[in-house]
Amino acid sequence: MNYLKTIKSIIAIVFIAFLASCSGGGSKPKQAGTAPASELKSTTVEVNPEAQKLLKFLETTGDYVNSRSFPSLIKASAVYKELDGKIKIIDLRSKDEYAKGHIKGAVNVEFSKIPDYFSNVIKPFELDKIVMVCSSGQVSSYATSLLRLMGYGNVYALRWGMSGWNKNFAKDVWLKEVSDKYEGKLELTENARASSTDFPQMNSGKSTGEEIITARFNGLFAAGYADAFITADKVFEKPKEYYTINFERKDKYDAGHIPGAMRYKTNGTLGIITEMESIPTNREVAVYCGTGHNSAFVAAYLRLFGYNAKAVLFGNNAFMHSKMLQDKKLLSWLPFTENEIESFPYVKN
Questions:
Q1: CA distances in angstroms from 148 to 39, 84, 98, 236, 242, listed in the order given
Q2: Alpha carbons within 13 A on the beta-carbon side of 42
């Protein structure tokens, strides 16, 4: 009898231990990497109504900035092949620059008059491509970004601008601006972002997303592009005055960046509330990438929302060109050299 009681007691103990292990009781350690619920909660700040409407409108119209077509750049060779097709080339340079040489068939349109030109002069959607052209490719990238966000899905910026078309245009622009003068001042430390804050107050007074973007679009073109860009010299001279955004891959950021710069993901920033709320609304924002093209697209998007964003002219090419050449294969850099320049004909008038 005692023997049977002993057996029953052992079975009971084993059964209770089994239940405890299945239910996760006892002193079972937490799984590695599991964060408390409080740490998993979003730290987002409530977004103001106009910014919410603009975000929603851009999302419903295709979320261009997170699509495969962002940024919309086109090479000179591709444009040259299509000159006889249904293509419109819009030259944003000054009248004097245009007269000294431009692509055959290109029309010279003042930057501030682009909205009217698209609305009242041409029929954009009857064309296969509309190519925006400037001296370096950066002003045209800024314009292209705004036009794409407005729904003109066939607009492209000419990569490198006229500098990539013919060496006669590159010698005083890209070939003159590449530099390695700040390579010795690059930082390797990863910097923390600012605390979350609401999006800028646009105060457009409009009631729908479409009305808001139209007002912002027209206002940005009317204001011109001078304030949308900044030189590397200014940023390196007083880096603490700017909230600097490195819009590149992590390995490129880790290889050396502007002092104080924070890295933002190329496909995980724009239109994402938690990311954009870490960009201050009370500071000048300097955005840079390898060539200045992508950052011009980004600056346009941020300025559409009211951020005081500026693209660093010529990107990394303006201050670490030698390092880009040295690590070209390792980090897939795109340093500007004479190899990027075509010898395509141009006309004068």
A1: 37, 24, 24, 32, 28
A2: 10
CB-based contact 89:244 (threshold 8 Å): no
Q: Are strands 262-263 and 73-74 parallel, antiparallel or unpaired?
A: unpaired
Residue 47 CB: number of other CB atoms within 10 A?
16
Q: Which domains does the chain have, with CATH numbers?
A: 49-177 (3.40.250.10), 183-331 (3.40.250.10)
Q: Which of 232, 309, 328 is nearest to 264 (CA)?
A: 309
pTM: 0.87
Residue in 61, 52, 54, 49 with CA at minimum distance from that of residue 217: 54
Scan for tokens 């940024």, then name that residue: 71
- Give CA 122 to chain center in angstroms: 28
| Residues 236 and 182: beta-carbon distance below 8 Å | yes
- Other residues' Cβ atoms within 10 Å of the Cβ of residue 136: 27
Q: How many helices (H) and strands (E) does the chain have?
A: 16, 10
The residues near 45 (Cβ < 8 Å, ≥ 6 apart) are: 196, 197, 198, 277
Cβ contact 171:195 at 8 Å = no
Distance CA 10, CA 259 (A): 68
| Exposure on the CB side of residue 123, measured as CA atoms within 13 A | 2
- In the block, which residue shows the tokens 């730290």? 43
pLDDT in tens, the chain (349 residues): 444 344 344 444 434 343 334 333 333 333 333 333 223 334 679 999 999 999 999 999 999 999 999 999 999 999 999 999 999 999 999 999 999 999 999 999 999 999 999 999 999 999 999 999 999 999 999 999 999 999 999 999 999 999 999 999 999 999 999 999 999 999 999 999 999 999 999 999 999 999 999 999 999 999 999 999 999 999 999 999 999 999 999 999 999 999 999 999 998 999 999 999 999 999 999 999 999 999 999 999 999 999 999 999 999 999 999 999 999 999 999 999 999 999 999 999 8
